[in-house]
Amino acid sequence: MRVHDPLDKILNNEVKIKILRFLCKTEAEWSGRQIAQEIKVSPAACHKALRELNNERVLLLRSVGKSYLYRLNKENFIISDLLKPLYERESKIPDDVYRAIVRNISSLLIKHIVSIAVFGSIKKGKERPTSDIDLLVVVRNSEDKRKVEEDFGKVNEKIIDKFGNTISSYIQSIKEFKLKYKKGLPLVKNILKSHRLLFGKPLEELL
C-alpha cells in the first residue's frame, strides 16, 4: 500500500470508483465479467481497473478454474477506515436531501400539506448534477396552493445552498390530483408508478 497519497491511484477514474462502491455494498466475491455487468461498464475497462486495484492491495484475487474472483481486502486500512465509511455515508445522501426538504417547510404550513412525494430522475437514480428535484405536493384545497407555493420558494433556496439542486414542485389539491388521475394524465400515472413518499398519506389513498 502507498503510504503517501494512496487515493491518487485508487480513485483516479470512474470505473474504479464504481467497482469499489459495488464491492463495498455487496461485500461478496465476483468475477470480473459479473462486476462489469453489474456496474454497466465494458469488460475490458473493468478488468483493467480490477488489475490496478489488486496491485494497490485493496482487492484480493483468487482463481477458480478458468475464472478469477475478486473481493475487497477488508483488512486493508484504505478499505476499512476510508472507503467503506465513505461509501456508506454517500448512500445516505438521498435521505439527507429528503429530510432537509421536509424539515425546512414552515411549521405553520405543513398542516395544509397532505402528501409529498419525489419522482423523476432523482427518484430513479439517473439524475445529472443539474437535475431538478421533482416533487409532487398534494394540499388540502386550492386555497392552500398559493401559500404552500410561496413557502417552497424559501425551501428551495436552502436546498440549493446545501445540495446545489433546484426543487421543481408540482403542487396539486386533492381534488385536482384525483381528477387528473381519472383523466389518465401521463404525468400523474408516471408519478404513481415510480415515486417515494417523503411525507403524509400514501398517494394511492388519495385517489
Question: How would you describe this structure to a colleague?
Answer:
There is one protein chain. The chain is of the alpha+beta class and 207 residues long. The protein is 51% helix and 20% strand. The chain folds into two domains: 84 residues, Winged helix-like DNA-binding domain superfamily/Winged helix DNA-binding domain (Arc Repressor Mutant, subunit A); 114 residues, Beta Polymerase, domain 2, CATH 3.30.460.10. A hairpin with a 2-residue loop joins strand 2 and strand 3. Helix 2 packs across helix 3 and helix 2 packs across helix 5. The longest helix is centred in the last third of the chain and has 22 residues.
The coarse silhouette is elongated
Please state the CA-atom Rg, rounded to the nearest Å.
22 Å
What is the CATH top level name of the largest domain?
Alpha Beta
The tally of structural domains comes to 2
Low-confidence stretches: none
Query: And the CATH topology of the largest domain?
Result: Beta Polymerase, domain 2
Elements, N to C (H/E):
HHEHHEEHHEHEHEHHE
- Per DSSP E runs of 2 or more residues, the count of β-strands stands at 7
Q: Mean pLDDT, nearest integer? A: 96
Major β-sheet strand ordering: 6-5-4-7
Largest sheet: 4 strands, mixed
Number of helices: 10
Percent strand:
15-25%
**Ends apart, CA distance between termini:** 58 Å
Structural class: alpha+beta
Proportion in helices: 40-55%
CATH superfamily grouping of the largest domain: Beta Polymerase, domain 2
